[in-house]
Amino acid sequence: MKSLRTFFTRHTLRTLALGVFCAAGAFAVGIETAGDVHPFAKSEAAIQEVVSGFGHVQGDVDGNGALDAADAYIVFRAIEALNTPSEVEILRGDMDDDGRLTSDDLNSILRLLSLQ
After folding, report:
1. Which terminus of the chain, N or C, has less C-beta within 10 A?
2. How many Å apart are CA 17 and CA 8, to the nearest integer?
3. What is the pLDDT of residues 15-58, one digit of tens each?
4. How far is the C-alpha of 55 from the C-alpha of 57, rounded, in Å?
5. Looking at domain 41-114, does it have CATH number 3.30.70?
6. CA geometry: angle 48, 50, 56, nearest 5 deg
7. Cβ count near 37 (within 10 Å)
């Protein structure tokens, strides 16, 4: 019995409690962010690579043949009404085919950019 008392010192109990708290916190964060997973994000990037081989990249608003930050910037400026996009820019940047440039299109472009 004496060996248990020497093992469970105040320092050991604090360390054990901190470890349990950290494990529970990490589990809670994992559960909270589990809904943010996009299971098809990598396949979307693969599709974009295949499509770019044919000369058209969806989301390539400026038409330079690559999806880059400039494309996201053009869509952002259109959303904020800082510029008026041409019909071609709308067609290239309209990721959800609703006929307009919206924050959903910008999010899709940014998600694809994050996978590059």
Report:
1. N
2. 12
3. 766 666 666 666 655 555 555 555 444 455 555 554 544 556 78
4. 7
5. no
6. 65
7. 7
